[in-house]
Model the fold of this input.
Amino acid sequence: MNLKRIGAMAVVGVTALSMAACNRGTESAGGGSDSVTIGLAVANLQADFFNQIKQSVDAEAKKAGATVRVSDAGGDAATQVNQIQDFITRQVDVIIYIPAGATAAGVPVKAAKRAGIPVVAVDRNAPDAPGDTFIATDSVAAAKTLGDWVAKTAGGKGELAILQGQIGTTPQVDRQKGFTQALSANPGIKVVAQQPADWAQDKAFSVAQDMLQANPDIDIFWGQADAMALGAAQAVKNANVKQKVIIAGFDGDIAGLKAVRAGQIDATMVQQTQAMGRLAVKSALDLTAKKKLPATQLQEAFLLTKADTKKADEYIAQHP
Done:
């Protein structure tokens, strides 16, 4: 082997390592070099909700003989833009895209479409550049169901504090809308405080503490994700409030399910993360086969209350 060839191979090796580092992801192989390659861009793998979807995508793609390349944005939209550009450079066949935030969420979709790569948007959709199909929980209907349950449990009256998710993201907007619909039929429940906690338990704990100091009679907390409901539960416990406080979440992630079963939070809406992952792969393969798909594919969520510990056990053992 001559020196020129050795040098060329070294350059190729360094380039490949550089691209892999840029992607910050992993790859799981399916049916071989001629199989469909799916780029899975995940918002944040530290969140159980997104991990559930990833696990389901991996398993379903393996069954179909497809290859999955995974990138984790770690909650940073700018990082995700670069990661999806890397998918485009690597010429993946289709992208399953879970946006890391509302800001610049449409940029990756536009770039993929310019490259002729179809996009399956999951959980969050960019209004200015939607995916070829969008898979998500019907959060408006689910949040209304939860709001109706809260209102009934509270006897139609109370002081409500809302811990909001990342403002402007699809789930935050839709959950707010659905819960507000329920509140409109229950004027005895007053929203005395609402503030973003960005889906984070630690931030929700701090925000809920401030809310209780300003409004000590709060008797309902709604966290627009289970993590925020858990933060509120800790704040209520630390505050030693005299009144019974109803605490509701949303997502049905493993920590949330365990908290409902233990009575730490009173209710949550369980999203079908495993089903969404399977549908995302099916939709991705359909798009590569040039099949026409609905613009939106909404999934039902299930109300789980602390009274139904058997159902909580079932969901913990096998998430829907």
